[in-house]
Write a structure and sequence with these properties.
about 525 residues, mainly alpha, Fumarase C, Chain B, domain 1, Fumarase C, Chain A, domain 2, 2 domains, three-stranded antiparallel β-sheet, two-stranded parallel ribbon, 20 helices, lyase, EC 4.3.1.3, Fumarase/histidase_N
Length: about 525
């Protein structure tokens, strides 16, 4: 946990930056007085229903296809515990800590709206686990994305009861009861409706969407940096990125991307031939000339996905819900379609931006297209292979990204004896988008590694100050052109420099903030 970084959880919507802070930086959470009051008011209504004779789904009935079974009052606490235990049925590898923390935070945010009917003490247990760094073990498989992310959230709820495995703040996998005791947290004994309220939401897929949005915002800026370096080292022109040309097609993402390219290439000595008229080439290949059109379209898609995420962050997702007038009503808001669609949608531009990046890399390696650079950028072509196989690695990732762009949300397998006869598969869409984001990071890293070598090989011509700053930052970790050497560690080093924003920061040290 970072000192002094606290996210306030009230009845209102969460900020995406707060999700990232809690999920990735271990920021603490604090339930506001308004949230506690809202939960207490809704809880009183649930307790009235629990004591009454009128059937209420999830309070005095079974779940899903068993909703017609009336549950006697003395069995209702057992009903909630049984729900959590039976639904904690995930399988496969454990998902990442940041994903689980994001999911826990988002469920806490919904509880804090006062529309779920849980006791404030139950929400405080969840907050306490976040603050103590206790992360339930949640598995890769188990969610159909409708009634939300049931199995993943059930593993969280199980840990709140002191059951199942968790990862503690030191990174050890231990029994939940042991971790809770060490942190001074009392396990929850769920009462009427609480089991259902803890597991019925889109929090897993939404958490992964919010994290992906943060990553892709940075990666699309990085894609512009990579494109600028490639345009420069391949002796392309930046005239096509002029603002008045971009204005003829007023997509905001395209304008932002072109502005980045202009800023990155300003003052380039390598491109002097285009300034003095000595270069006679009139058009560059599409992968150079159309970079802002593709990266810009990706930005606009990202913008739409961010809009959907903001709406979901303002939602109170449960079934049934406690309304402000005291009614408790069943609904279908747990269906993950809105989130699932944009998770799938984002995988398409991720694949396409990566595909264009790979095509620029390939141009560097072919003497018929690289305008005077050595074959494969090798020190002694034939003896040395240069970046020949780095492009193979890039191409393998791009091929995988194309497969990951196939949507998950078009699939549906009926469940719960046909009561849940249409599901979103949003969790699956989120899992493949995470893999796609990692793949794009790696593809851009290979392009930047290759373009930096191309820029160095243009010496004594000098690069633009901004692209030069990126090359200089890269050279702190990776040596310049020379005989063949073990290439895999160099690729991984650049992957880290992309992921931790070092290369964006290097560019912005010259240009100022990029889009």
């Amino acid at each position: 946990m970072r000192d002094n970084e606290v996210v306030e959880i009230g009845p209102g919507p969460l900020d995406p930056a707060d999700v990232v802070a809690v999920a990735r930086r271990g920021a603490a959470v604090h339930l506001t007085d308004d949230a506690v009051a809202a939960m207490a008011a809704a809880r009183s209504r649930v307790e009235e229903l629990a004591e009454g004779a009128v059937p209420a789904y999830g309070v005095s009935t079974g779940f899903g296809a068993l909703a017609n079974r009336h549950i006697a009052p003395e069995l209702r606490a057992k009903l909630q515990r049984s729900l959590i235990r039976s639904h904690a049925a995930g399988s496969g590898p454990a998902v990442e800590t940041e994903v689980v923390r994001a999911m826990m935070l988002l469920r806490l945010s919904t509880l804090a709206t006062g529309h779920t009917g849980v006791r404030p003490s139950t929400a405080k247990t969840l907050a306490g686990m976040l603050n103590a760094g206790i992360t339930p073990v949640v598995h890769e498989y188990g969610s159909l994305g409708c009634s939300g992310d049931l199995a993943p959230l059930s593993h969280v709820a199980l840990a709140m009861m002191g059951e199942g495995p968790v990862v503690d703040a030191s990174g050890r996998t231990v029994p939940a009861a042991e971790a809770l005791k060490q942190a001074g947290i009392e396990p929850v004994e769920p009462t009427a409706k609480e089991g259902l309220a803890l597991v019925n939401g889109t929090d897993g897929m939404l958490g992964m969407l919010v994290l992906a949005l943060a990553d892709l915002s940075m990666l699309l800026t990085t894609a512009d940096i990579a494109a600028a370096m490639s345009v420069e080292a391949l002796l392309g022109t930046d005239y096509v990125f002029a603002a008045d040309l971009q204005d003829l097609r007023p997509h905001p993402g395209q304008a932002a991307s072109a502005a980045n390219l202009r800023a990155m290439l300003a003052g380039s000595g390598i491109m002097a031939g285009h300034r003095d008229g000595s270069c006679t080439r009139v058009q560059d290949a599409y992968s150079l000339r159309c970079a802002p059109q593709v990266a810009g379209a990706a930005r606009d898609t990202l913008g739409y996905a961010a809009t959907v995420a903001s709406r979901e962050l303002a939602s109170a997702i449960d079934n049934p819900v406690v309304l402000d007038d005291g009614r408790v009503e069943s609904n279908g808001n747990f269906h993950g379609a809105p989130v699932a669609y944009v998770l799938d949608f984002l995988a398409i531009p991720v694949a396409d931006v990566a595909s264009m990046s790979e095509r620029r890399t390939d141009r560097f390696l072919d003497v018929a297209r690289n305008h005077g650079l050595p074959a494969f950028l090798a020190d002694d072509p034939g003896v040395d292979s240069g970046h020949m196989i780095a492009q193979y690695t890039q191409a393998a990732v791009v091929s995988e990204l194309k497969r990951l762009a196939v949507p998950a949300s078009v699939d549906s397998i009926p469940s719960s004896a046909m009561q849940e006869d249409h599901v979103s598969m949003g969790w699956s869409a989120a899992r493949k988008l995470r893999r796609a984001v990692d793949g794009l990071t790696r593809v851009l890293a290979v392009e930047i590694l290759t373009a930096a070598r191309g820029i160095d090989l243009r010496a004594p011509a000098t690069p633009a100050p901004a692209t030069g700053a990126v090359v200089a930052a890269l050279r702190q970790e990776v040596a310049g052109p020379g005989p063949d050497r073990f290439l895999a560690p160099e690729i991984e080093a650049v992957v880290r420099l992309v992921a931790d924003r070092t290369l964006v920061a290097a560019a912005e040290s010259v240009t100022g903030p990029l889009n």
